[in-house]
């Protein structure tokens, strides 16, 4: 049974935090789906990931290609990721269910703490998962480093 980790972004933008988390997921040997809500925004994230440092290279692809099932990291708007991930990272308000969490090793929900709409969506998601009995942790970087602030 997996857990959801909520990441309240206040110091670094989503692309920086996402790259860090994707690197850790790769170290764990997980296939990852990055679930977004807007194809244009996923294309932007795709470009940011390709522009990273060579030492931090993260092999990935945008959904819709002929090799989706082979991608270690697949950026998608779909709930059904073709790469059969062990980890799903939700960005830009993408939704995840408690049932999905139990079927995965890890779920990460990244949200911009400076955006009231994103903050409210994350709070609603947390409450929904809590009410469903899902395991979750809330992480914040309020004073510069990641700290676990809550767990259910």
Task: Kindly list the characteristics that best describe this protein.
152 residues; Rossmann fold; 8-stranded mixed β-sheet; 32% helix
Summarize the amount of helix as a percent range: 25-40%
Reported for the largest beta sheet, the result is: 8 strands, mixed
Number of strands: 8
Mean of residue pLDDT values: 93
- Count of alpha/pi helices: 4
Determine the N-to-C terminus distance. 14 Å
The CATH class designation is: Alpha Beta
Name of the CATH homologous superfamily: DNA polymerase III subunit chi
Strand content: 25-35%
Low-pLDDT runs = none
Q: Please, how many domains?
A: 1
- Secondary-structure-based class equals alpha/beta
List the helices and strands and how they pair.
Elements lengths: L2 E7 L4 H14 L4 E4 L3 H12 L10 E2 L10 E4 L10 E4 L7 H6 L2 E7 L3 H16 L4 E5 L6 E5 L1
Parallel strand pairs: 1-6, 1-7, 2-4, 2-5, 3-4, 5-6
Antiparallel strand pairs: 7-8
Account of the protein in words:
Helix content is 32%, strand content 25%. By secondary structure, the chain is of the alpha/beta class. The protein has one domain: DNA polymerase III subunit chi (Rossmann fold). An 8-stranded mixed sheet has the order 3-4-2-5-6-1-7-8, sandwiched between helices. The mean pLDDT is 93.
């Amino acid at each position: 049974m997996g857990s959801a980790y909520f990441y309240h972004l206040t110091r670094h933008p989503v692309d920086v935090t996402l790259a860090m988390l994707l690197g850790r997921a790769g170290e764990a040997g997980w296939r990852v789906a990055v679930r977004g809500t807007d194809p244009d925004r996923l294309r932007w994230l795709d470009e940011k990931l390709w522009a990273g440092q060579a030492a931090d290279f993260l092999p990935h692809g945008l959904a819709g290609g002929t090799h989706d099932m082979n991608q270690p990291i697949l950026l998608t708007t779909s709930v059904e990721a073709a790469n059969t991930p062990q980890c799903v990272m939700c960005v830009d308000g993408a939704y995840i269910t408690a049932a999905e969490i139990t079927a995965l090793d890890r779920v990460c929900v990244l949200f911009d703490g400076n955006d009231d709409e994103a903050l409210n969506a994350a709070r609603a998601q947390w409450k929904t998962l809590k009410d469903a009995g899902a395991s979750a942790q809330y992480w914040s970087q309020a004073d510069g480093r990641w700290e676990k602030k809550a767990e259910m």
